[in-house]
């Protein structure tokens, strides 16, 4: 039973503390669209997506009006295209044709992103998956709303270093092909380890082959709510602080659960999971950095930052799993530099470096996210950064990712403007010591010993 106090409390979180549902994402299987003819495949993909998701945006808007809960994004994820296109695609141009079809679906349905231009190559690559990966730069150039991801490692399989090397090259090429827009193509491309099948957040969202034909996944977010709760604990011990964050996460998740169930009912699509991730925006008061600094840090990046982030991540999960029986996706705290004003401030004042961000990814949900680096950075160095992040995910049995943007013709001291939720970012310095001999070894880094649990 919902009482008047809870209604008033939720209204306050929405009106004063930036509480929102960050995304309703419909996951759609394209397995039944597969065909040997590329034109037939694209027609099948278009028909299925525009049929299943035709009411997504309208439904989201109706729920917003009914409950007064902002729903920032309506999105779609599909079965990894590296798999779907395996029979029909004989060239990179064939895969780009699918990317254009996905973009046309997104435009017609008025969703802001469609994810799943993806390949899962943690142990090896099929010829079709290699073609898809090689097509990514062109696909990111000619589309507006398509997101791409490549999973190159997992705790069970190890790290595919051939794919890691290739992705360093692909990121560089994507940056160059989209240099007229500050290399924005790289903002829609992420490299992952242990990618979940049910992630509603871009750019890493895809509809896993273990999922149902279609599903509703919801991502909630409330850094502002958590920040205000933390501020009320000033001077309290860690037990009190953790309890406060946990209770707050419970309330945030209940809002997401309400939206998910309502969307599932209205669209007649099964409810999948709630993703508990605290996802920031460039708006003031909607920052993960502010939450960490509210715990007593002068600035994010100061000693104690990783411990503070570990507290936040763990308590968000503990509160969330009590509020919903179906928690999935990534679920924790995102630390994208360009999308978080507090993170930006810390980078600009010298408190937060790339190395400290890497340390923080050991305990956060994702990894090195929306980080702009000099365009002159070599593909081998980018691959080295990816390899480090994949190793963190593999060893710690968690999802990690790299969404890094080598901004062509820009260097440290300059900034890059992406606009909207993607925000802006200062170009961060990168360790320039060479790692190409290491990256060029190729092959696969074996899975860790604790992966063997059968």
Explain how this protein is built.
The chain has 454 residues and is of the alpha/beta class. It contains 15 helices and 13 strands. The strands form two sheets. Strands 1, 2, 3, 4, 5, 6, 7, 8, 9, 10 and 13 form an eleven-stranded mixed beta sheet that branches. Strand 3 (113-120), helix 6 and strand 4 form a beta-alpha-beta unit. Helix 6 (127-142) runs parallel beside helix 7. The longest helix has 30 residues, at 238-267. It is globular and about 65 Å long. The chain starts with a helix and ends in a 9-residue tail after the last strand. Mean pLDDT is 88; it is low at 1-7.
Write a brief structural summary.
This protein is α/β, with parallel strands linked by helices and 454 residues long. It contains 15 helices and 13 strands.
